[in-house]
Amino acid sequence: MKKTALKKGFTxxxxxxxxxxxxxxxxxxxxxxxxxxxxxxxxINTLVAYGLAQEGIEAVRNxxxxxxxxxxxxxxxxxKQSISPWIAVLPSVIGDTRFYTVDFRDPxxxxxxxxxxxxxxxxxxxEELGTEKDYGASKETSLYKKAYGSTxxxxxxxxxxxxxxxxxxIAITPVDYSVxxxxxxxxxxxAIPKVKKMRVTSIVEWDESGSRREVxxxxxxxxxxxxx
Length: 228
Known about the structure:
Number of strands: 7
Largest sheet: 7 strands, antiparallel
Order of helices and strands: HEHEEEEEE
Structural class: alpha+beta
Radius of gyration: 29 Å
Helix content: 25-40%
Distance between the termini: 118 Å
């Protein structure tokens, strides 16, 4: 009679231990993958936020430069009627912080006949926000994606479009005065102070994974135009 050797199999405890090890390895790999995806999403949002904050700074700088070219004063007002091509004007009292939204605009027409028509072709729209509140969650500061022009270039705008998690607003504070022209409205002439430097802060906020995140950029802009 021929004898066959019995092959020893795995016991139940060994099988359970093996399954547990496999499950732990799979869970660890899954958690690592999820954490990596989440980290990449956070990095992308942070990069976009830095870009939006930088755009806010450059928009206000462009407004300052354009004011000089247009013959406007440092607050952005032109002529006796104090017309502003940017909709809003900049603050004029030291330490008085004002909050704004600044938005790219696609000019409708470049044919300008009067000063009042400048607002139709200005590349930026500056609007003052109301009383101070949680601007990082305000509908007024929400940013949307919108396609512009024949190339369908996507830009971030405060107008309607594809919803994004980002909110942007600008804080502007006059920080320094210089001595202006002499006043002749009284018996004794006196120097009229005027703002010569403003601190500009561009803030971008967004909610991510249940927490508020924020990016800030600061700069100081001076009035390098000698006279109004």
